[in-house]
Amino acid sequence: MSIETETETTTTSKAEVDAGQFSTASISNGDNQVMEKNDTIAAFDGEEKTEFFYLEGWRLWAIMGTLYLNTLLAALDVGIIATAIPAITDEFLQLNYVGWYGGTIFLTLSTASPVWGKLYKYVSARYVYLVSIVIFLVGSIVAATAKSSIPFIIARALQGLGCSGSIGGSVLMINYVAHPAKQPMLIGLWATVYMISTIIGPLIGGAFTSHVTWRWCFWINLPVGGPVLVAVILFFHVPKHVKYSKATWKEIILQLDLPGFAFIFTSLVCYTIALQWGGLTKPWSDGNVIATLVMWVVLTIGFFVVEYFQGERAMMPLRLLKTRLQWTNTLYAMMVNCAEFQVLFYLPIYFQSVHGQSAIASGVNTLPFIAFFALGSMMSGGIIGKTRIFQPFLLAGGLLATVGAALLYTVELKSSKARYLGSQVIFGFGIGLGCQVPLMALQSFTSPEDVASVTGIIVMMNSLSGGYFVTAAESVFDNRLLESLAVSAPSINPGLVLATGATQLRGVFKGQDLTAILAGYMAGVKDVFAWSLAGAAFTAVLALVVPFKKMPPVEDASAKEKSEDEKEETV
């Protein structure tokens, strides 16, 4: 028995169109005769004609507001726990689970994105989006009420699962409802909301932990998430030009590629465990560390083998990565966050530990990063929307981010405010210019039936940066800190240093011990910034490999098709 998913959730009257609530486009394949007037575009060929309805006016901004609010909520939860972890550790009394408190959300956030992408391909986006929000809110309730580490870690996994579906769904819905000329700007705004939410998360978490309780980091999701649910029900309607593939429930389950998900998820778990053990609780030569690293490699290879045999059912269909245009943009989406996340998570540590600033003060000092990221993101989105040229923004973004990361790497214990604020301006602007461009480009060149899958893959690549690089950065930082202390202050208990929050160092340690610890912190931060520099430089080089192509107008149905030279342009 087959199911027919929602293909028409919006009815549009002539009066609504005349009132400017929708812009319409009639699309068909063939000679591609295009006429444009007052945002109404039509391409004619024979008798068949497909109408496109794009929202305008208050209807568009009602949906955009809903999407941005939900993105803010989801992204906020990625980092909100950072400053609350010491208090959680004090309550649960299990220091060995510290890495899981902050890292678990990345495991499901990254690996589940393509699975959600498949669901959006076969099932009504409205219902899938609602389910993702509900899962996130359930995870928030479990986290807020958890009495021990295991339920709390499970709750964080549920939150990551929900975030994965709602973040990917937000970007996909922009593609569905917004006129193609407006999509780059709106996606740029979305990236800015995501960035701001990730940065202010630790500040809000610190405020709750200091003045109320860490549990409010999760309770706060309910009064915000409730209105989001209502707004989705009222405004979140999929335009009738969006067609869903028909399939049986059995086929939909097979399309989710659960074997592929199991391989990539367990590989990431092994990787996380190995880096949390290595050099900290176990030596790198320990058999358990070596075994988990080997299993990570084996399972990762196994994932690509499974994807090959799954074919069109793969969560990451390999045909969507064949052309140079596809694989370079996908890799750029992953590596740009390698550069961004290292600075995003460790710049506040630099402020709070080395300079002794409060969580709120460190947040204020990251404002240049936020502001110029937003400026770069909106600028590139707006210009790309007008010119349809994207490759120069990847290159310019990579070069500026490399310069900014190099300047950040040179900061020292006593660097002036102008020194570290100026570096953020260049770095933030560079990251903002390029970070959302791969998604814009691939959505533009992708056929309509593959847009959901491509969106899921790009969101997965963005999130895997957290799963891989934030975890690795934590290992680099901790190992470098302990290595420095072993030389300069061997009498200090390393466990006490790792368990002490960055803002609490001056209350726990004094004199020469404090000086040695701050020097160790600085050494660890510089190593993390060096990694950020390498990631930024890689994106600049990668941008030179991205084909110089002009994004086709989305209204032209034939522009979604691959040209013959693209089909032959494989690795």
Describe the SSE topology.
Elements: H1 14-18, E1 22-27, E2 33-37, E3 40-44, E4 50-55, H2 57-79, H3 85-92, H4 98-111, H5 113-122, H6 125-145, H7 149-177, H8 183-211, H9 216-219, H10 221-235, H11 249-255, H12 258-277, H13 287-310, H14 324-354, H15 359-364, H16 367-387, H17 391-409, H18 417-434, H19 437-445, H20 451-488, H21 494-499, H22 505-508, H23 511-545, H24 564-568
Parallel strand pairs: 1-3
Antiparallel strand pairs: 1-4, 2-3
Helix pairs in contact: 2-7, 2-8, 2-10, 4-7, 4-12, 4-20, 5-7, 5-20, 6-7, 6-10, 7-8, 7-20, 8-16, 12-13, 12-20, 14-17, 14-19, 14-20, 14-23, 16-18, 17-18, 17-23, 19-20, 20-23
In short:
With 571 residues, the protein is mainly alpha-helical. It has helices spanning 14-18, 57-79, 85-92, 98-111, 113-122, 125-145, 149-177, 183-211, 216-219, 221-235, 249-255, 258-277, 287-310, 324-354, 359-364, 367-387, 391-409, 417-434, 437-445, 451-488, 494-499, 505-508, 511-545, 564-568; strands at 22-27, 33-37, 40-44, 50-55. α4 (98-111) packs antiparallel against α12 (258-277) and α14 (324-354) packs parallel to α20 (451-488).
